[in-house]
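ok so i was messing around last nite and threw this chain in just to see what happens. nothing serious, just curious
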Amino acid sequence: MQAHERFYGISDDFRSPYARDRDRVIHSGSFRKLEYKTQVFLNQEGDFFRTRLTHSLEVSQIARSISSQLGLEESLAEAIALSHDMGHTPFGHVGGDTLDACLKADGFKNGFEHNYQSFRVVSMLEKRYKPFLGLNLTYATLEGILKHSYPYKKSFLPERIHEQFNLDTHPSIEAMVVDRADEIAYMTHDIDDGVTSGLISFETLKESKLIQDVLAMVAEEGVTQEDGDEMFRYRFSSHLINYLVYALLDYSKDKVDNSRVLAGVIDSKQEIPIGFEKSLETEIKKLKKLLHQKLYLHKQIVRKMYAGQQAIRGLYSAMMEEEKILPAYYLQQIQMRNKHRVISDYIASLSDRYALSLYNELYGRM
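result:
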């Protein structure tokens, strides 16, 4: 199957195939719901913290910029970036892990995995066209969402997925760009949100050589924290993104084949051409470890996420016991699909605020 082709027929349009994919994603209900889904801080904690929606937009911007400089298909990178998190549950990764545990405890060994759920959302769960399920995106966009993390062969994937997308190959280079843009975006904005919330400080972050180098760039501009926290954080975030983007471009520019979209073409045993020099890769890993220890495991975040876990467990248990809690559409789906999977699909689709509201309605205020 060619990169630009779709599984179902489509009428001609003035847009490129990948621009149409992007537009279909943006106009989908699942994309809109990302506005009220947690990135790190629960959505109701403040208007200035990132959500899954703002994160996806930031990933898209970085991925477009990199793709443009490397001569890649910019709209393809944008479509993958905007849809890569559409399978996330409420309450971030904790919500997905809890739903996974619920399913496995009930004997469903395939459980729940948010990257595959993103693929299921755009290929099956969104219902926008009468003749078929899903958004009917191009092969390259679907592959980029499906193969978001290496290795691509995973025990929970149906055999038909390997037959359709050849899991022995890398996704397109545009998808590789999105993967690294995702990393650049979340490291940068998690630091920004963490410092804004007071849960982590630049003094603590100086344990990272990468952060030290970026802070030195801010200092060279003559900007200090005395100029105001907001300006200082903004200049820091700008320098961190620029530093990583330029480093990625320097490493990748001579390794990239941009003659066409290479979907399902590059053997997965080959080295990925998008990345950083080894020394910088090491510093990035150290920074991510620091963020995990000092920010993501901070007691205030752990407490909020524990509440999210309880909400997911409570909703799953209640709906398994009384399926009539489900909206009419999902209640109908139980007649055609596995009950456990229908319930997990519904819970995964909820925003943080609605999940908490429904939990409070069923069990009393949390």
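not much to say yet. The two ends are 50 Å apart (CA to CA).
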